[in-house]
Amino acid sequence: MSGWGGSEVPVPPKPAAVAEYERIAEKGGLHTEGGWVLLIGAAVGVAYAAWQGRTAGYAALLLVPLAVWVWIAGHRLGRRQRETEAVAREYVRALMAAKARGADVPELSGQLSRLL
User: Fold this and answer.
1) What is the C-alpha to C-alpha distance for residues 87 and 109, in angstroms, rounded to an integer?
2) H or E element that contains 23
3) Predicted local confidence at residue 10, as pLDDT
4) What angle do CA 91, 10, 115 make, to 5 degrees?
5) Distance between CA atoms of 53 and 62, rounded to whole angstroms?
6) Gap between the Cα atoms of 5 and 7, Å rounded
7) How distant, in Å, are the alpha carbons of 14, 18, 85, 104 from that of 81?
8) What is the longest distance spanned by two Cα atoms in the chain?
9) What is the rounded CA–CA span in Å between residue 40 and residue 14?
10) How far apart are the C-alpha atoms of 71 and 63, rounded to whole Å?
11) d(CA 115, CA 82)
12) CB 19 within 8 A of CB 113
């Protein structure tokens, strides 16, 4: 009797934020460490320049803005991951509720199945 009287359970549509979460869920994570490595590299270069009298070592100071950029990029990515994860969790809950009511739901991606 499918199709009669609305007996089919609707499957919630996938929001764009969920697709973005699947795309960025496992990216990044080393921004803090990378920023520290760049900052330490800058410090080593400056120390070399100061102790050895080699002015070329001061060029390592160019790594400082790069380190800051890496930290900012990591912070933004992490914030976006948290924002989209909340939407993805709601989507997974809605799918599981629809499945419990008898809906034929699509198979979850690896990123979404880890949210279960």
Assistant:
1) 15
2) helix 16-24
3) 85
4) 20
5) 18
6) 6
7) 17, 10, 6, 28
8) 87
9) 44
10) 12
11) 12
12) no
Q: What pTM value is reported for the model? A: 0.68
Mean pLDDT of 92-114: 87
When pLDDT is cut at 50, 70 and 90, the band that residue 28 belongs to is: low
Q: What secondary structure letter does DSSP report for 3?
A: T
Q: Is 23 left (phi over 0), alpha (psi -120 to 50) or beta?
A: alpha
* Residue whose structure tokens are 């993805």: 88
* Residue 89 scores a pLDDT above 80: yes
Q: 25 phi and psi, to 5 degrees?
A: -55, -40
User: What residues have CB less than 8 Å from 87, skipping those under 6 apart?
Assistant: 15, 17, 18, 21
Q: What is the pLDDT averaged over residues 59-83?
A: 90
Which residues make Cβ contacts (< 8 Å) with residue 19, sequence separation at least 6? none
